Amino acid sequence: QTRRWQEMDARHHVHPFSDQAALAKKGARVITHAEGVYLYDSEGHKIIDGMAGLWCVNVGYGRSELAEAGYKALKELPYYNTFFQTTNPYTAELGERLAEVTPDGLDRFFFANSGSEANDSMVKIIRYYWSLQGKPEKKVFISRKQAYHGVTMTAASLSGISAMHPQAGLPLPNHAHIDFPYWYGMGGDMDPNEFGVHIAMKLEEKILEIGAENVAAFVAEPVQGAGGLIIPPDSYWPVIQEICHKYDILLHADEVICGFGRTGNWFGSHTYGIVPDTMAMAKGMTSGYQPLSAVALGPRVGDALHNSGEEWSHGFTYSGHPVASAVALANLDVLQKDKLVEKAGGETGEHFLKHLHALADHPIVGETRGVGLLGAIELVKDKKTRERFEGDTGGLCRDHCFENDLIMRAIGNTMVLSPPLSITKAELDELFTLARKALDATAKDLGA
Ligand code: PLP
């Protein structure tokens, strides 16, 4: 059976972010079901998912509350749009419930289906905002190198991972990228807080270069995820916010990974004291059980859009989808009932970070860093000089994890973890035993 699925897949399925022919030759691993923090493949392997899918399955797999909520909505109202002066009970309630957990004042929500669409929509909303203010020339978006904000033409232009640009001739005009606060890789002799200020000041430099009158917004994740799990020094965000105020630049927080408990609070903005004008959320919003995202608007942008006095020309067929909204409500219920956000910032997070930092003694680990249930492990040849190994060391380690039935992601030479928030202490013990085994095997291959 596995072979048959692999053959069909190889013939017809264009995979995201994959070398198509190489994958077709190798055969994709077929994941058939999942429960709790474990994935099961068609060959009978039970795999611990250290990444919660793509940083999204916050409540863990197999929660029947979410399945039942989706089933009920599918039977009652499988679909209706929200364009023609209509709403539905699920989406109406979802806005109310989200407003209870978002940072102060962010209480209007535009719904979409993916993080990319949320960020793309945000760009249109903010450009419209500035044009309503009589400043339509404010349309440059400054984001960061190595950022990941999605893959539509605009979201990929906001993204700063340079490999994402050449195949589509990106970035589009009106996008600029500045350095990101990667202390371990770029901090040199500076202490972390000094470095945080130094990098934050790059925003001011870029604004002065472009002219504040042309800049619409600064866009960033509270903790940069796919760009290498970059945890900002404490000094970074306060300076960024000061600069945005000084030059009247809006601040958009991309909370697609950080939202819904990942950093130990409801949003990364809470963890870092950020007061954004707008915010994108997706992934943990339904724990990945349904595609759903939103742009949250604070009063400045939200009121302007609300009171524009004309039709706002934007929206998706599935904006405010009843089934996705019903699942999001059940997901919020589970997060709240099981106190998963509190635990990520409390006992589960502490246990996770204790294990993570214990790996710092490993001969090929240069730094461990983490917050909530996000963790990174830097692989180095020389702990003192931070010299890296040549070649794809991260890929090697990831493959050793895979052989040991653990999913850990490699971003260059950085291994990252983002397990379901529902993970137990015993499961964390198991996860980190497997992680150390994979590090040992990697070190052995490298002769380290
Ligand atoms: N923003 C961030 C921070 C992300 O990590 C991602 C996806 O990983 C996105 C946006 C894009 O979301 P999607 O893949 O749902 O379009």
Name its key features.
four-stranded mixed β-sheet; 2 domains; seven-stranded mixed β-sheet; pyridoxal phosphate binding; Aspartate Aminotransferase, domain 2; 448 residues; alpha/beta; globular; Putative aminotransferase; pyridoxal phosphate; aminotransferase; 17 helices; 42% helix; binds pyridoxal-5'-phosphate; Aspartate Aminotransferase, domain 1
What does this protein look like?
The chain is about 40% helix and about 15% strand. By secondary structure, the chain is of the alpha/beta class. It folds into 2 domains: about 35-60 and about 340-445, Alpha-Beta Complex (Aspartate Aminotransferase, domain 1); about 65-335, Aspartate Aminotransferase, domain 2. Strands 4-10-9-8-7-5-6 form a 7-stranded mixed β-sheet, sandwiched between helices. It has a 4-stranded mixed β-sheet with strand order 1-2-3-13. The longest helix is centred in the last third of the chain and has 22 residues, at about 425-445. The two termini are about 40 Å apart. The mean pLDDT is about 95. Bound molecules: pyridoxal-5'-phosphate. Pyridoxal-5'-phosphate (PLP) binds near residues 54, 114, 150 and 221.
